[in-house]
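FAQ

Q: What does a record look like?
A: Structure on top, sequence underneath. For example:
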């Protein structure tokens, strides 16, 4: 196993946001200096809920291009669906997973409650996630709270497989991710900004400056008009706190700002300046789609090489 191997997948379930940039893409870029990184577009995971093929295709293309534009080109970039080992190992792991334990996953219970008709893949999603991880034999996997239960399932499945069929998988340690900024929704600062949430409170990475300005201008603050209104307090001033954190994370400074109007102007400027080089690079890359698809094609090839021995060992251990 490779001690410094890192794996992250992003699901093309919407348009990447400022939250994804500060909380995921930035740390992913930084990690490239100290680890061999595999960064994937988990397009199979996007199929667990219904969406039109055209919308999915557009999201995959946009996200693929954005990962390159965000400076992740020192990594192996790939699309999950272009590495068949993911789906194949997922099936093999379904043969050690039980419907009982999958039905107990909190995310499945929450998401399936909101739907009339639930896709089987929503139930088996954490098994595919286990395959995504175990194929690359990372020793450590940084996961946030929302994925902790799925990561524990990954460990359970790996251990159960090893006990039943022989030592095939490296059982990864779960580590706490390096704290990036947690960006909250501008319209509802008590929930996180999300690519799969409502558009009004989320700044998309490709939003032009006037759209950024409008969204920030409409950001929820509070009715405090005192001389110390512009200050952080997560409990009582979530909207203002979020704006201050975005400002700082985007290289701005709250020094001398005393009104919400001035704060919003400063946040707009900082976000627009943060996104400008990314958007310029995106436009260059979008003009050369062959280069982008070639990058992902060769990335998938590298992934096939890396994962082939693990898949072969699992197949053989099971008697195939
Ligand atoms: P989303 O809710 O935007 O669909 P995901 O839950 O798919 O995002 O997470 C993708 C990555 O982006 C994860 O690494 C997650 O920690 C990070 N991320 C998502 N939203 C935010 C946010 N609002 N602030 C910081 N990081 C975020
Ligand atoms: Na999400």
């Amino acid at each position: 196993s490779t001690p410094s191997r890192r794996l992250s997948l992003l699901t093309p379930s919407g348009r990447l946001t400022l939250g994804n940039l500060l909380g995921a893409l930035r740390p992913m870029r930084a990690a490239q200096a100290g680890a061999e990184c595999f960064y994937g577009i988990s397009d199979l995971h996007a199929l667990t809920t219904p969406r039109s093929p055209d919308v999915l295709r557009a999201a995959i293309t946009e996200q693929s291009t954005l990962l390159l534009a965000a400076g992740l080109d020192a990594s192996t970039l790939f699309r999950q669906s272009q590495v068949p080992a993911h789906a194949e190992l997922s099936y093999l792991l379904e043969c050690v997973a039980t419907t009982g334990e999958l039905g107990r996953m909190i995310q499945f219970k929450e998401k399936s409650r909101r739907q009339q008709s639930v896709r089987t893949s929503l139930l088996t999603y954490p098994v595919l996630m286990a395959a995504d991880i175990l194929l690359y034999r990372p020793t450590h996997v940084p996961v946030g709270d929302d994925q902790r239960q799925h990561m524990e399932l990954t460990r359970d499945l790996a251990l159960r497989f090893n006990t039943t069929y022989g030592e095939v998988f490296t059982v990864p340690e779960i580590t706490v991710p390096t704290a990036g900024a947690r960006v909250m929704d501008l319209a509802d600062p008590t929930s996180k900004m999300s690519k799969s949430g409502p558009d009004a409170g989320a700044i998309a990475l490709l939003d032009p400056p006037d759209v950024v300005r409008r969204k920030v201008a409409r950001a929820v603050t509070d009715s405090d008009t005192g001389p110390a209104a512009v200050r952080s307090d997560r409990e009582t001033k979530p909207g203002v706190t979020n704006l201050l954190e975005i400002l700082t994370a985007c290289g701005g400074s709250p020094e001398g700002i005393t009104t919400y109007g001035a704060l919003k102007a400063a946040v707009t400027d900082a976000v627009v300046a943060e996104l400008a080089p990314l958007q310029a690079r995106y436009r260059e890359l979008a003009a050369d789609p062959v280069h982008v698809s070639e990058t992902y094609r060769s990335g998938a090839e590298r992934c096939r090489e890396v994962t082939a021995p693990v898949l072969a060992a699992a197949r053989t251990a099971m008697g195939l």
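Q: Is there anything notable about this one?
A: Residues 202 and 220 are 12 Å apart (CA to CA).
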